[in-house]
């Protein structure tokens, strides 16, 4: 049985990420980027698919873990009858290399550890060629498969049937450093990492980034950790923001709703930026804005809803036979078929976020407003186009109310940029289209019972409708909005948490069901707070924050019956929505603040 999804902690160097279980096993690591093939893939199979375990030899050992404050340096403290030891592990924040460090620290007595290294490159499709290269006193092992190689230093590993293992004893005051370094297989092994320097640099990098965060609001620990997660998912070279670091963790255990989230969705990235902007982080916005220009390039008519980390366009979805799936949930997929979808809300999300950056003081560059103007014209060209919607519906195309509202928001931001900020553009034409779109939504997006509907051909509701007040389409206490929330509470709540929509309606064209979507429940907190139901908002927020794991991570969904997290993790959508909900309870709502002409910074 694999570890539960909430049993994993994240290590990140803002280029790639590792997931470490409570048992001390690194079960997921893709090198050198978030979306590279895995070297450790046990998360989607078992140890034979790649794993690096490090834990006390004594099976009775107990553990507690935490991050060093405001970092992704994970400290796991092991207690055994013979003593106490800690494992300090992290992906080093270095300029030009990728190093995974596992330092074993003796605290009391003597503790003997066992480590087992099983390397299975390319999503467990390539067993590596392994060579012992070190010298006595400086052991080193290099494994090569195709274009990739790793060198492991710090312990002499003995081989047996593709498993390399060793015993390590540490006494009080002693350290042992195990370091795995990735490099291209056609280049020489990098020199050994200076571990002390790497620890200091990595700690300083993360703590320096987090130091400006205001900690006076509600749920400060959860907010700070969530902001750190959002930064951890942002590639520090390209500026691309991935939706999660994993692929194919199931939305329904044992089912087929398994997707690859290691890419940059324009929507998710834009929403992430709004949460960062609300807390004073503008450098990431500037970096991503440049990423957006490179990704969209010279033809906005060809804009996609998602891209690779460096702006790659070819993300064709494939199924992998080499990985059996998390606890057998098949298939495992790489790439994502949604890349070819048209989702009408996406450009609205982008333009709302870029307006927030403008209001927060980020100056427009020579290219940034022309890019936005071109995106607005793309919205104009698609005004009558049916789409797949925010939830990437694989059923028939519809006129989804949320998508129509986000198109309205795109035009609205364009008009305001011209009228209020002096940008050049055809504001009169955009304004006319915006107002016609509002009239259409008011007529066709509201049913006879007075609530907003998922799309124009149904009476179903959809949790994405909670964002209508967020972008200024209506007030949170608009009677239609209150009626919509009432209908959601009647049909979408499962044990107090909110589903995205009713899968039983058949709208998504997929088999199976799913669990409550955490971001939607955080949206409901925001709606409750904005409409005066503060007691309900705090009660729901308390419950949601209690669902984070022991180191503050959230996945995409929550299985209420099984009391466990589900879906890819850590999930940007969940963490950004947590930040927004806490801000709403503090009296600040990012998008509503934009409408008031200011953005909270800190």
Describe the structure.
31% of the residues lie in helices and 21% in strands. It is an alpha+beta fold and 602 residues long. It has a 15-stranded antiparallel beta sheet that branches. Strands 16-17 form a two-stranded antiparallel ribbon. The protein has a two-stranded antiparallel ribbon with strand order 18-19. A hairpin with a 4-residue loop joins strand 22 and strand 23. Helix 3 (220-232) packs antiparallel against helix 13. The model is unreliable at 592-602 (pLDDT under 50).
Secondary-structure blueprint of this entry?
Layout (H helix, E strand, L loop, with lengths): L8 E4 L4 E4 L4 E6 L7 E3 L10 E6 L5 E6 L6 E7 L2 E9 L6 E21 L2 H4 L4 E4 L7 E6 L2 E6 L4 E3 L2 E9 L3 E10 L10 H16 L9 H13 L31 E2 H12 L5 H14 L9 E2 L10 E3 L11 E3 L11 H14 L8 H14 L19 H21 L5 H18 L34 H13 L1 E2 L2 E2 L19 H13 L3 H12 L11 E3 L4 E3 L5 H14 L4 H6 L7
Antiparallel strand pairs: 1-2, 2-3, 3-4, 3-5, 5-9, 6-7, 7-8, 8-9, 9-14, 9-15, 10-11, 11-12, 12-15, 13-14, 16-17, 18-19, 20-21, 22-23
Short account of what is shown:
The protein has 602 residues and is α+β, with helices and mostly antiparallel strands. Helix content is 31%, strand content 21%. The protein is globular.
